[in-house]
Structure formats: structure tokens, C-alpha cells
Design brief:
Length: 336
């Protein structure tokens, strides 16, 4: 059984009124059905981050952070269908950024996708949209109790355009310069986590200290239950984030999903263990959640490339390192 091939004379994959556009994927349906499911659960990361941020914030800020998480998803969706997808994944892209070949979702429908010949392009586009939305959500977290919602949404639109789309093009578009090296980034260590982390830090520095910097109670999460629930949604969504990045329902995808759970688990163990051994503290729900998320981030670029035991090591070391870094900068109050 041969995979469908992209036909440049039919960039949309055929006219559904004249031909059966599904016929080219007969025998491969399970691949794109799996990716659709992964996309659905990746979406849960968006409200998960909102709940996580909301639980860590003061009570009066929690609702705004929840609202902002959904607005980020809405704004990023508009950006993606307007020109984001074309800038990242157009087939005629240069080594650094795409062109306007798919502006306004032009010809994005039933043809084999740039990422995988067994995935219709509309499915691939949806899945990658959710990656972009999650990344923008992380960046906008830099405005955590520092800035207003509307300016942060405008910032998110342009950040996705000027930062995320070019880096995604470098890394995952077959024409991208990193892709052609080749560099190995399974699910977004560079386009998602490195870019968003540094951008969020820069954004926070530009906005300045939190509005309640003088309030001594601000350092404690107002609702650990929300933190826990947000982490659970993020952890569950990450199965789709990493497991779906194989762009097919193969053993590699299953390995990535297994490694995701492994790294999150050992990350949680690592954070709690270091916290207990260094300070003799009682076990903390927030600490456990922080360790799990650190493990998830650490395994993301290698999820489909390493064995299970190495994934366990990556999760443990990542969480332990993040713990050390967060406590090393604590005296400087860089985030307050």
C-alpha cells in the first residue's frame, strides 16, 4: 500500500463535489483519526495552563487568568488561519520563513500534508494550530498580574507571527534550515519551550514587577486545587502533544506517549525529593505539580527518540535542575 502523494495541480486534494477526496487515504484512516484525537486532548492544555496560573495567583486575579487562557486560544486561532499556518508550513517556504501561499487557509483541505503524506492537510493544520496556541499561552503568562488582558492578546498575535512561525518553519518545515541540517526536535523543545520561556521572561522584565509587589501574601498560591487540576489537564494533554508529534499511529508514537508519562512521574519524584532532602519540608502539592510539568517540558524534544529509562533520567534531572535554579534566583525576586 503506497502513501498518497501531493499533486501540485490539485493543491486542495481534489474537488469533493467531483471526486471522493477520502479515497486516497483508504487504509491510512487510523493515522489521521489518531492525530485528530491527539489534537483534541492537546486543546486541554490551554485551559490547564489557565487553571495552573489562576491557582498560583491571588484570588482576585484568578478569573482574569482563566478568561485570558480562552482568549489566547481564540486570538491564536485567528492568527493561524489568517497567515500563521502559511508562514510556518507553506510548501514554497524559504529556509527562514514561509510565504503567503496558504494565506487565509487557501488550498488547505484534503491534500497530503507537508508533515506526513498519510495526514490530510486540514488535520495537520489543526494539530499545529494547537501547538501555537499552547506556546502563546505560555508567553502571555509573562504578563501574570503585571499587565492588562487586551495588550497581552495583541502582543500574543504579533509574537506568534514574528517569533513562533519563523522558528516552527526552521524546525519542522521540510524547507527550513534546521530541518535540513538535520536537527532533531521531536515535539517542540525549540519552537515551543525555549522560545516561549525566554520570551515570557523578557516580557515580564519589560512589564515590571507585579502590581501587588508589596503584598506579603502574594507568594502563596491562593488555590492549590486549581493548581492540581491544571496540572492534571496539562499532563493529559501532553500525551497528545508528544504522542501525536510522530504524525502517525505507530510504535514511535506509543513510545513518545510512554516516555511522556515516565518523565512527568520521575520529574515529580525529583522535585519532591530535593525539596524534602534540602529543607525537610512536608510534601507539597504545588511542588509535585511543578516537578511533573518540568519533567514534561524536559522530555518534549526527545520523547520519540530515547528509551524509557533515559526518559526517566531526563525527567528527574530536569525537575531537580529547575528546582535548583528557582531557588538560586529566589533572593533576587526576579519574578515579583
Amino acid at each position: 500500500m503506497s502513501s498518497p502523494a501531493f499533486n501540485s495541480t490539485e493543491p486542495k486534494g481534489g474537488d469533493p463535489f467531483l471526486v471522493d477526496v477520502n479515497a486516497q487515504y483508504v487504509g491510512f484512516e487510523y493515522h489521521y483519526t489518531y492525530l485528530v484525537f491527539c489534537g483534541f486532548i492537546v486543546w486541554l492544555i490551554i485551559p490547564g495552563i489557565g487553571l495552573l496560573y489562576g491557582g498560583l495567583a491571588r484570588r482576585k486575579s484568578a478569573l482574569a487568568l482563566l478568561f485570558q487562557s480562552l482568549m489566547v486560544a481564540a486570538v491564536t486561532t485567528f492568527q493561524w488561519i489568517f497567515w500563521g499556518y502559511s508562514l510556518a508550513y507553506s510548501r514554497t517556504a524559504g529556509p527562514f520563513i514561509g510565504d503567503m501561499a496558504n494565506f487565509g487557509m487557501k488550498n488547505v483541505m484534503a491534500a497530503p500534508s507537508p508533515g506526513s503524506a498519510v495526514i490530510p492537510e486540514i488535520v495537520f493544520c489543526l494539530y499545529q494550530l494547537l501547538f501555537c496556541a499552547c506556546t502563546v499561552q505560555i508567553v502571555v503568562g509573562g504578563a501574570f498580574e503585571r499587565g492588562r488582558i487586551v495588550p497581552s492578546l495583541v502582543f500574543g498575535f504579533f509574537w506568534a507571527t514574528l517569533i513562533y512561525c519563523p522558528i516552527a518553519c526552521w524546525t519542522w518545515n521540510p524547507n527550513g534550515w534546521l530541518y535540513q541540517l538535520p536537527s532533531l526536535d521531536f515535539a517542540g523543545g525549540g519552537p515551543v519551550h525555549i522560545s516561549s520561556g525566554w520570551s515570557a521572561l523578557a516580557y515580564a522584565f519589560v512589564l515590571g514587577k507585579r502590581k501587588h509587589a508589596g503584598d506579603k501574601s502574594h507568594s502563596k498560591p491562593h488555590n492549590t486545587t486549581l493548581v492540581f487540576l491544571g496540572t492534571v489537564l496539562i499532563w493529559f494533554g501532553w500525551f497528545g502533544f508528544n504522542g501525536g508529534s510522530a504524525l502517525n499511529a505507530t510504535v514511535r508514537a506509543m513510545l513518545a506517549a510512554f516516555n511522556t508519562n515516565t518523565a512527568a512521574s520521575t520529574g515529580m519524584i525529583g522535585w519532591v525529593m530535593v525539596d524534602y532532602l534540602k529543607y525537610g519540608r512536608k510534601f507539597s502539592v504545588v511542588g509535585a505539580c511543578s516537578g511533573a510539568i518540568a519533567g514534561l517540558v524536559g522530555i518534549t524534544p526527545a520523547a520519540g527518540y530515547v528509551g524509557v529509562w533515559l526518559a526517566a533520567v531526563i525527567g528527574f534531572i530536569t525537575a531537580s535542575s529547575v528546582w535548583e535554579c528557582s531557588h538560586a534566583i529566589f533572593p533576587f525576586r526576579l519574578w515579583t
